[in-house]
Write a structure and sequence with these properties.
alpha+beta; 3-stranded antiparallel β-sheet; 23 helices
């Protein structure tokens, strides 16, 4: 009831605001939404402030961040009497850094968050985010009015809105293997790869053709990337769907048809298939065949840099990365013809992306939440600010070509001119698709439409897993997973059967059964509440 009354009052406020604007001779046109400065007339912005934006990704070191920031700060000074700075968290051990910052909360204004990979719900439970119900209608009115009620429900915790969803941006973040199309044809692979078995043929072919030239078929680095291999195997070889709110991939739904039935991918499946053991044996074979470095567990090489240098045959990432990487590689290696094997293609096991894969929250200790929301509303809805913050400076980071597409300027070099704010909490199709990106692979619509043809709805968008009953067990299980799984994933854990047995024994000792029972209990309650 409290939430309903807040919502009703907020809608009344928004209606009054709209009528007030109309009485002053204003109409709510797209032009008004492109520059929402009229809403600041009765808001005190006389004090200049600097707003921070916590963003995931490595900070550009080529001077372009500073150059672009100078431009958007000029615009923000005029519009909102403020400046905006990005606080980057580098990819090395990013989750630990991120949670430590949110635990202190000092100096955090706008925060990039997500329910499936940045622990939005656990951080909400810990009180890291500000409640936005009362603030949104006044300080982010366009966002408030255009985000539907169903989307606000996806970011509501105990009756309070704790973030803004990225609900109006088309993307696919399902992972897979990227590979050299020109090399595949040399090997004799003329059709798109659609299984792990076919991909192994590619890896062996790369080794046979180019191994003596220093090329590594799959120059894999980093524990998270290694663990992702088992994510991919699970995706390709089963109907399991990940219950993202539970960390470390510890709990999965049985299938889309029985998403409320909890299963573990670390133990044999209902049909008796020992998926983990099969995977461990296969990866031992890949490791022994030399598809990655012998010292892969200690490798720190940047796989994409190696790929563009012609020294790596495989890159593991998601569709959204691939559709941009294709032409980036063509600029570096003309004719490389980057191809993509999405793991879901083998099984047609694909769920649509949650609108909280990207979201923006306000820090609970934010000193200027009103201005922070005003900045967000401007980034999301004002085209000038949107382009500056997401794309950079026209003529330096991008141009609009004669086809109306966003393209790269002549002479653009990624290392010299590249800029990224990594604003993954409010991108908008109305700006992005208005200027179809010429740097995307030409058949991106075909790829997206194929996924759309068999993807299932995301089931766990509103499921908030309360970790408190099993907090200690989850910590212990995270340690077990991180000590055992990376080595199993690259065939460096010794005998596969012994390695899997040892892994399972430690999972059980760490309280895995208790965790699965708790997830099942909470998920059953969630299903019954729908």
């Amino acid at each position: 009831m409290k939430s309903y009354l807040r919502r009703l009052l907020a809608l009344i406020f928004a209606l009054v605001l709209t009528l007030t604007m109309a009485s002053c001779g204003k109409t709510p046109t797209d032009a008004d939404k492109s520059a929402p400065e009229g809403d600041t007339d009765e808001i005190d912005i006389s004090t200049f402030v600097t707003i921070s934006h916590l963003s995931l990704g490595n900070k550009p070191t080529n001077g372009q961040y500073e150059a672009v920031k100078e431009e958007w700060d000029k615009y923000l000074k005029e519009k909102l009497n403020c400046a905006l700075e990005i606080q980057y968290i580098g990819w090395t051990d990013y989750m630990t850094q991120y949670n430590l910052l949110l635990a202190t909360g000092e100096g955090l204004d706008l925060i990039n968050t997500a329910s499936d990979w940045l622990e939005m719900w656990p951080n909400a439970q810990r009180g890291a985010f500000l409640e936005l119900n009362e603030l949104l209608p006044k300080y982010a009115p366009i966002t408030w009015e255009t985000v539907p009620e169903s989307s606000w429900a996806e970011v509501t915790f105990k009756g309070d809105i704790i973030a803004i969803p990225e609900d109006m941006y088309s993307q696919w973040i399902n992972h897979g293997f990227m590979y050299r199309g020109d090399w595949a044809r040399e090997i004799g692979i003329t059709e798109p790869i659609k299984s792990w078995e076919e991909f192994q043929v590619y890896l062996q072919g790369v080794k046979d053709l180019y191994g003596d030239q220093g090329v590594i078929p799959f120059d894999l680095a980093g524990a998270s990337n290694m663990k992702a291999l088992y994510d991919g195997w699970t995706n390709s070889k089963s109907s399991l769907i990940c219950i993202d709110p539970v960390p470390e991939g510890l709990a999965f739904g049985k299938s889309d048809d029985e998403w409320w039935e909890v299963r573990s991918r670390f133990y044999p499946l209902d049909d008796g298939t020992d998926m983990l053991l099969e995977f461990a044996k296969e990866m031992k074979e890949w490791g022994d065949a030399g598809y990655w470095r012998e010292d892969v567990l200690n490798n720190t090489a940047d796989g994409w840099v190696q790929f563009k240098a012609g020294l790596n045959g495989t890159r593991q990432h998601h569709t959204q990365t691939y559709v941009y990487a294709y032409k980036e590689l063509e600029r570096e290696i003309p004719g490389a013809d980057l191809q993509f094997f999405p793991w879901c293609e083998e099984s047609k096991n694909l769920t649509k992306m949650s609108i909280t894969h990207g979201a923006t929250a306000i820090g609970a200790r934010c000193k200027n939440p009103e201005r922070a929301l005003m900045v967000y509303d401007l980034i999301r809805n004002d085209e000038t600010m949107y382009r500056l913050f997401n794309w950079g400076i026209e003529g330096v980071q991008y141009i609009i070509n004669d086809k109306g597409q966003r393209d790269l300027p002549e002479g653009y070099i990624t290392d010299q001119h590249g800029f990224a704010s990594n604003f993954w909490g409010g991108r908008m199709d109305k700006f992005e698709l208005k200027y179809p990106n010429a740097t995307m692979v030409d058949n991106w619509e075909e790829i997206y439409n194929n996924f759309e043809s068999y993807a299932k709805p995301y089931r766990y968008g509103r499921f908030v897993f309360d970790k408190s009953p099993v907090e200690s067990e989850l910590a212990a299980l995270s340690d077990v997973v991180n000590r055992h799984l990376p080595a199993i994933c690259v065939g460096k854990a010794g005998d596969p059967e012994a390695a899997v047995e040892a892994f399972r024994k430690e999972l059980k000792m760490a309280g895995y059964d208790k965790v699965l029972e708790e997830v099942q209990r909470q998920l059953t309650e969630f299903k019954n509440s729908l």
